[in-house]
């Protein structure tokens, strides 16, 4: 009899896990479609960085403009442009621009919507419940667990039910560095020409260019 109940419990847990995964997948598909449909996007960001040991604790604000896989991210210390293949990172303090061809994993650190495109390949999704955004809107929470040995260990997405787009993204690294990104004041449907996402040298005369490609 005991073995029978263990078998029933295992079947129930497997069915529950399958259901939560299916719900998470549906929400992620909907979020990805909403992002593509949104066209040009501009948003305000609040970013909190914390480490498990407490040796890193930092908070700052920023803005981001996005269209597809392209983006421009502005924070107090850096300006980053990515046109889909090349990335320019301007360091405010040193007046230096680094040019790179970032990998998909590297882009996960700078483009908050990257996970909507990469989760199928790199992560196992699960639905973790309902929540309320910082602006008081109903949301659904989805967690992503890395499938293999990656720098990113887990990702938690809070998806606004009204827009299907992320309102909060929490990324936990293998080294236990945790990054929490709150996304607010989002505008969609903007006309953002492709040159928006390319470093404008005329606006930064005299900077040092370091080509790391």
Q: Would you mind describing this structure in some detail?
A:
- The chain is α+β, with helices and mostly antiparallel strands and 213 residues long.
- Helices cover 23% and strands 46% of the residues.
- The chain contains three helices and twelve strands, in the order αββββββααββββββ.
- It has helices spanning 2-38, 104-107, 115-122; strands at residues 40-51, 57-67, 70-74, 78-82, 87-91, 96-100, 123-132, 138-146, 152-160, 166-173, 177-190, 208-211.
- It has a twelve-stranded mixed sheet.
- Strand 4 (78-82) and strand 5 (87-91) form a beta hairpin.
- Residues 4-17 have low confidence and may be disordered.
Task: Sum this structure up briefly.
The chain is 23% helix and 46% strand. By secondary structure, the protein is of the alpha+beta class.
List the helices and strands and how they pair.
Layout: H1 2-38, E1 40-51, E2 57-67, E3 70-74, E4 78-82, E5 87-91, E6 96-100, H2 104-107, H3 115-122, E7 123-132, E8 138-146, E9 152-160, E10 166-173, E11 177-190, E12 208-211
Parallel strand pairs: 6-12
Antiparallel strand pairs: 1-2, 1-11, 2-3, 3-4, 4-5, 5-6, 7-8, 8-9, 9-10, 10-11
Task: List the helices and strands in order.
Answer: HEEEEEEHHEEEEEE
Distance between the termini: 65 Å
Quickly count the helices: 3
Strand order of the largest sheet: 7-8-9-10-11-1-2-3-4-5-6-12
How many beta-strand elements? 12
Radius of gyration, Cα only, in angstroms? 19 Å
**β-strand amount:** over 45%
């Amino acid at each position: 009899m005991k073995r029978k109940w263990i078998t029933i419990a295992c079947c129930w847990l497997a069915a529950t896990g399958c259901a939560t995964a299916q719900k998470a997948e549906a929400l992620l598909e909907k979020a990805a479609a909403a992002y593509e449909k949104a066209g040009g996007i501009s948003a305000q960001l609040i970013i909190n960085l914390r480490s498990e040991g407490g040796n890193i604790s930092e908070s700052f604000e920023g803005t981001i403009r996005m269209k597809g896989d392209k983006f421009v991210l502005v924070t107090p210390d850096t300006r980053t442009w990515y046109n889909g293949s090349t990335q320019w990172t301007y360091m405010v303090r040193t007046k230096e621009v680094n040019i790179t061809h970032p990998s998909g994993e590297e882009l996960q650190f700078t483009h908050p919507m990257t996970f909507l495109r990469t989760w199928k390949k790199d992560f196992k999704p699960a639905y973790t419940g309902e929540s309320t955004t910082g602006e008081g809107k109903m949301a659904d929470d989805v967690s992503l667990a890395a499938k293999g040995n990656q720098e990113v260990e887990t990702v938690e997405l809070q998806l606004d039910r009204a827009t299907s787009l992320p309102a909060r993204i929490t990324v936990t690294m293998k080294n236990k560095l945790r990054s929490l990104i709150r996304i607010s004041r989002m505008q969609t449907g903007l006309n953002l020409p492709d040159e928006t996402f390319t470093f404008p040298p005329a606006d930064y005369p005299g900077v040092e260019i370091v080509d790391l490609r």
